[in-house]
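S1.2 Input.
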Amino acid sequence: MTKKIVCTIVVALLIIATVSGILIYEDKNIEINKYDVTSNALPTEFDGYRIAHISDLHNAVFGKDNSELIDILKIAEPDIIAITGDIIDSRRTDVDISLAFVKEIKKIAPCYYVTGNHEARVGNEYAVLKDGMIREGVVILENDVLTVGCENAYIEVIGLEDPTFSVSGSTETEAEVVADKLRKLTGSEKDFTLLLSHKPEFFDIYVENGIDLVLSGHTHGGQFIIPFIGGLIAPGQGFFPEFDSGFFEKEGTKMIVSRGLGNSIIPLRVNNRPEVILIELHCGY
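S1.3 Output.
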């Protein structure tokens, strides 16, 4: 073997090792992104109210017993924690990991949870997860609306069950299910409304129903983020998704889409670290 060939092999191995290291780092190191959301509908008592938003954990573990993720939430000191679906993965479901995680974060702040499409796929295992989460004190919102108080003021929190639960064996599309469910949960005179819904591709429906702030996930940030372009592919939206991650606004409705924490079919991320979102609400007047 000539010296030139040896050098070529060494360089190739170094490149492979470097790329592999970058991918592993991106897959296991959580990025914290902060958003300030201002609304005229927000009661003054909620000015400075903090929400931690996590999504699409897919049974991933960050540190022993998810200690790294839990520590991030502890330091953030949120008023509530919103979990927008796919806390488990239908291909490698481990209910115990999910329950151990929510048991710890429930000590930090009240937790509000909506399902994702992976919960809809696991059959009886979701019932086990649901029962366990209820025992741990997590508030599960399945097409429900409730009020959350701060001093003597309230906001509405709406949670949509993932439409995957409803469309099996039905002639309705997911969009029709979401529109029907949300219409029944809104329409009254109200103050600020916070919607937890796994899928961001129904943004126009959220806008039509006058939601103030939507928290969503599902996209995994488009999996591979191309500089100056955005995410490459997302479920429900296909290639170059419009709602890949980050902040969106239309006609007074704001939506924040999490890149999520875990992986599913595609086992790696490129230029797309796992994400925890911290939101601070502000009164607009």
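S1.4 Remarks. Residues 10-21 have pLDDT under 50 and may be disordered.
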